[in-house]
Design goal:
Layout (H helix, E strand, L loop, with lengths): L1 E5 L8 H6 L13 H11 L2 E4 L16 H12 L4 E4 L9 H11 L6 E6 L12 E3 L10 H13 L4
Parallel strand pairs: 1-2, 1-4, 2-3, 4-5
Helix pairs in contact: 2-5
């Protein structure tokens, strides 16, 4: 299985988007970014694993989601996207790298390759070769150049 560890803030939104979005509705996700996620999946067959702090709101069982989790599921579904899983919460001070490693360790024989799409350098260390950094400050978050890099990492096997 190929896996996309997906962040939301800074990947599926940006400062430019925040300036124009409707704040009277739940519009935290810039829906123009989701076709790019879909392109990665269509080209690689990858599954989405939420690594964002938004994962706290999401569950595979929609009845266990709060309104934010329902919003994520509903918004992804509009584009034919489904979330496969989420990284575990391993403590308040855990780094995202540790949460991803924990997920990978729990699925050792399932993962062929993976990519991490995030907007912040969390000190990825041994995962750096699998990391695609977006720029929500000067860019739009996820953009075509990130899609190309993510696809390349997923198709060449990454550093599993």
């Amino acid at each position: 299985m190929k896996v996309i560890f997906l962040d939301i803030d800074g990947v599926l939104n940006s400062r430019a988007y925040d300036r124009k979005r409707n704040r009277n509705e739940q519009t935290d996700i810039d829906e123009t970014r989701l076709p790019l996620v879909k392109e990665i999946i269509e080209r690689t067959g990858a599954e989405i694993v939420l690594s964002s702090t938004w994962r706290e709101h999401w569950s595979q069982d929609i009845s266990k989601c709060d309104s934010d989790g329902e919003y994520i599921t509903r918004t992804f579904k509009k584009f034919g996207l489904e979330i496969y899983d989420k990284t575990p919460d391993i403590g308040r001070y855990a780094e995202r790298r540790d949460e991803i490693n924990c997920w990978l360790e729990a699925h050792p024989s399932e993962v062929d390759s993976f990519v991490i799409i995030d907007d912040y350098r969390y000190g990825w260390k041994e995962l750096n070769a699998n990391f695609v950094k977006t720029n929500p400050n000067l860019g739009l978050g996820l953009e075509q150049e990130h899609v190309e890099k993510a696809v390349e990492i997923l198709l060449t096997g990454g550093n599993v």
